[in-house]
Amino acid sequence: MRFWCDLLGFKIAYDRPAEGFAYLIRGGAQIMLCQGIGRWMTGALERPRGRGVNFQIMVDRLDPVLAELASAQWPLFEEPRDAWYRTGPVEGGQREFLVQDPDGYLVRLAENLGERQPE
């Protein structure tokens, strides 16, 4: 929980500790964490988990999150950068970085930079 709450700024909306379950919120983002017991098991759990997937979470400002990660000496998987992606007739921009959670899942945090015409 330290990674998700203390470093990324999520709050526990509710949890069921006996089941190893927590429902976290941050702005409009919602994450359900389950320790891999019960009916949601899709296969054997091997580390690092989360290979081939990353979750994007939009935040108002990246700098406070980056400061928390730096103070905890939590390594970034990919340093912050400005990225522009084609989203139809325009490009949407975001400042983004990637970090791995304790189980190896990639989490992309991004701050909106607006839109522009494609170059």
UniProtKB/TrEMBL annotation:
PROSITE patterns: VOC (PS51819). Residues 1-112 form the VOC domain. GO terms for molecular function: dioxygenase activity. Gene3D superfamilies: 2,3-Dihydroxybiphenyl 1,2-Dioxygenase, domain 1. CDD domains: BLMA_like. The keyword Zinc-finger does not apply. Keywords: Antibiotic resistance. Pfam families: Glyoxalase. It comes from the Bacteria. One of its GO terms (biological process) is response to antibiotic. Belongs to the bleomycin resistance protein family. This is Bleomycin resistance protein. It comes from Methylobacterium oryzae CBMB20.
